[in-house]
UniProtKB/TrEMBL annotation:
This is HAD-like protein. GO terms for molecular function: phosphatase activity. Signal peptide: none annotated. It holds the Pfam family HAD. Transmembrane segments: none annotated. It comes from the Eukaryota. PANTHER family: PHOSPHORIC MONOESTER HYDROLASE, UPF0655 PROTEIN YCR015C.
Length: 244
């Protein structure tokens, strides 16, 4: 039986540290303030669109050009130890890989090319926001969905697959507040468990009763996805593993 699947990721989920968090923590307003803004988003007090814009504006206010940010990310962002093997498996199984990100396409493309090589990076579709660079060198994010409180409503990248006559199984991998809009629309939701304790998406899913599978790196996720593809696990059984 042929099985059609899609894998979608947040860009920070495939790395050991999220690029947006790195910029905010190291080049902008700092981790403590970023966490305050994350908590406000989780509590529904502020939108992710507005808090994320504030984070990026703090980077610009400190005089960091877009090019400088790109080079800093290329130097400091590392790939999840199990992702390359997982990506090779997806290629061999003809599983499309799509990055759905709250970040900006040029930064994601640059970091991804640096981590897995330009040839492989160019094969991966990126659905994210863009950037506007002004004549004076200052820059700002250009949201994909500016009227949405998410800035980029990731559910809009998933729902078209849901409407197909023969919809694929959708695996979604996420880790943060920007993934809340997409969480309930995946067939199998993987939530990355961070070593620093910033498990915002997990907390959101627990509160909302959204079944999900916690994973620390892609090695575990690889095993579960493979079993679903091979028919050894159903979607329901896979999610049951995550709730055990």
């Amino acid at each position: 039986m042929a099985l059609s699947l899609n894998d979608v990721y947040r860009d920070g989920t495939i790395t050991t540290r999220d690029s947006n968090d790195y910029m905010t923590d190291e080049l902008g307003l700092g981790r403590e303030k970023r966490r305050e803004l994350n908590f406000a988003t989780l509590a529904g007090e502020r939108t992710f669109r507005d808090t994320f814009r504030e984070m990026l504006e703090s980077v610009v206010a400190k005089g960091h050009s877009f090019g400088y940010c790109e080079e800093e990310l290329k130097k400091n962002i590392k790939l999840d130890s199990g992702f390359k093997e997982f990506y090779r498996y997806c290629e061999s199984a003809d599983i499309p890989v799509v990055i759905i990100s709250s970040g900006m396409t040029p930064l994601i493309r640059a970091v991804l090319s640096n981590l897995i090589g330009e040839e492989d990076a160019n094969k991966i579709e990126i659905v994210s926001n863009e950037v506007i660079i002004h004549p004076d060198g200052k820059w700002e994010i250009q949201y994909r969905h500016p009227s949405s409180g998410y800035g980029h409503d990731k559910s809009q990248a998933i729902l078209p697959y849901r409407r197909l006559p023969d919809p694929p199984i959708i695996f979604f991998f996420g880790d943060g507040v920007s993934d809340m809009s997409a969480a309930k629309h995946a067939d199998v939701l993987f939530v990355k468990q961070k070593e620093d304790g910033e498990n915002d998406l997990h907390q959101y899913c627990v509160r909302q009763g959204i079944p999900h599978i916690l994973f620390s790196n892609f090695s575990r996720a690889h095993n579960i996805v493979r079993q679903v593809v091979e028919g050894k696990l159903s979607v329901k059984e896979a999610l049951a593993i995550g709730q055990a």
